[in-house]
Amino acid sequence: MRREIPLIITFVCGLAMIAQFFIPHSPFGGVKDYFQQSYMIIAAFAMLLGIGNLTKLHVGKISEKRPQWGYSVVLLAGLLGMTIPGLFIGGIKEGTIFDFLFKNAFVPMSSTMFALLAFFVASASYRAFRARTVDAALLLIAGFVVMLGRAPIGDYLTWFMPEGWQMSDYANWIMEIPNTAGQRAIMMGAALGVVATSLRVIVGIERSYLGGE
Amino acid sequence: MLTPVSRMCCRPLSVPVQILFLAVTIMTAGVSLGVGTSSSGVRPGPPVNPSVGDRPNDAGSAIEITWEASFDDSRGRGIVNSYSIFRSTEAVSGFANVATINSGRERYQFVDEAVEDGRRYFYKIVAETGSGAFSEPGVIGPIISSAQWFHSDRYSMLWALIVVSTSVLIFISLARKGKELYIRPIAGLQAVDEAVGRATEMGRPVLYVPGILDMDDVQTIAGVAILGRVARKTAEYETPLSVPVSRSVVMSAAQETVKEAYWDMGKPDAYRPEMVRYLTDDQFGYAAGVDGIMLRERPATVFFMGAFYAESLILAETGHSIGAIQIAGTAMTSQLPFFVTACDYTLIGEELFAAGAYLTEDPRLLGSLKGQDVAKGLAIAFIFIGVILESFGIHWLTDFLKVN
Lengths: 213, 404
Hints:
The complex is a heterodimer. By secondary structure, chain A is mainly α. Chain A is built from eight helices and no strands. Chain A starts with a helix and ends in an 11-residue tail after the last helix. Chain B is 44% helix and 19% strand. Chain B has helices at 2-9, 15-31, 155-176, 187-202, 218-237, 248-264, 283-297, 311-321, 336-342, 350-360, 363-391, 396-401, and strands at residues 48-54, 63-68, 80-88, 96-102, 107-112, 120-129, 139-144, 206-209, 241-245, 276-278, 301-305, 325-330, 345-348. A six-stranded parallel β-sheet of chain B has the order 10-9-8-11-12-13, sandwiched between helices. Chain B has a four-stranded antiparallel β-sheet with strand order 4-3-6-7, with no helix packed on it. In chain B, strands 1-2-5 form a three-stranded antiparallel β-sheet, with no helix packed on it. The radius of gyration of chain B is 33 Å and the shape is elongated.
């Protein structure tokens, strides 16, 4: 029964979700909202599990003085430093300690991580654009045209061309025709994959997410 | 009434006729003062073509009211400030205001969601000026709201679902009966054994990242399914496995999956709960955490299987910098170029969903892949037919396939 009950729940819930897509009438129409709300409640409780897991892991690491345990101290300090003011000292409104930490520590750190992306894009582009194969050469040319076409200098360079034949027009053509076609093909394949995976899960053939074969 | 005056004012009228209309207008306005205008106001023209109807394809309790702008709205004299909607269950009395909408548009729509199914309702829509004058209200209705048993805009989706499901179920049935099915080799999945073996030889861990979305996303489910297969390999080779997750529910599911995999492989002692660890729900906090794990633990093999956003390249480039063999899979089209660039193998779109089935070699799962391929073939055929029909100006197939 340990396996059967989750499979039955999955089957019933899966069919209900399919039905609600086609049947607006009650009780089907409200099924999606009901499940979404239920999921949010479960996820909120599961958050405690996550925090428990994180705390247990890092407290263990500190107490056993495992290598690089100092990072765990920083992590737990960050966790407590945000949680305690948020819960017990003034809440999370504007002007509170939590708000101060959020704006002056959390947001800048998140922005820093996001900003790293620019450097990673540069290093990845360098590797991708090395024209060692025909594919890579095509990628390089397409990327070159799109980048130039997206910047004002692209049209300045092709000022002598008639309207509709300038760099920005080539860039738009690449983005709208071959790029869109490729993306749509991938999206359609993925959509069919989603349907097939969902069917496998609903009928109980795919059960590895429950820990089984 | 002002409406005809407003209309006719746009025509080239002679001066005497204009004076006559002005006089009539003033007189009419004066006469109608006692019938709903403020003492200072002039009646504006009423809303044009008002109509009410049951909102289609809904769960009931909603009536849709539409109308076009009064001739005295912004396109006319510009004296209409707002429109008020009144509702009653009787045609002649009991009208109560249910909404007021600011003017300034060509067409207006209001959905009254405070109605009961099966009851008759009447509506009045009046245009109001800034001075408090309002147009002559006309009653529209009766109208009864009701719930629908089928969403009429989704026939094409129903057909598609039936075709895809039938195709998948037929091939599952054929596979169960022992029919040999050819599935094309997928390089990224064939490399899984090699990747785990490499980590074993190097004595380094395998890092598995199941994306940043929750278990309600199919990509995450596919990612956790593949994790089960990878965990079997790591259990078999006794290779350390590390699975940092960004959602608590995913953590619970992944812990169960890895635990079961180790039990099934007869290595329950090798399983440790901290193999699957929760980091944070925050996108870039998670990226920073995984990057830190990569740099400290230096895994020999990294899997990225699931849904990713802007953190994809940050993770994949860090993995590349430590020299790990990387296998990625996602259906997020905007992140695929990053993975293709930074990883050794990339499962593109549908290959991610096929991976779980592919790795088990279970005939039933492989049958479902075959059914999926047939559905894809049908989709391609529809695209070709659609292109030809559209080229000849025939739109019925496109119209049928549209989903609102």
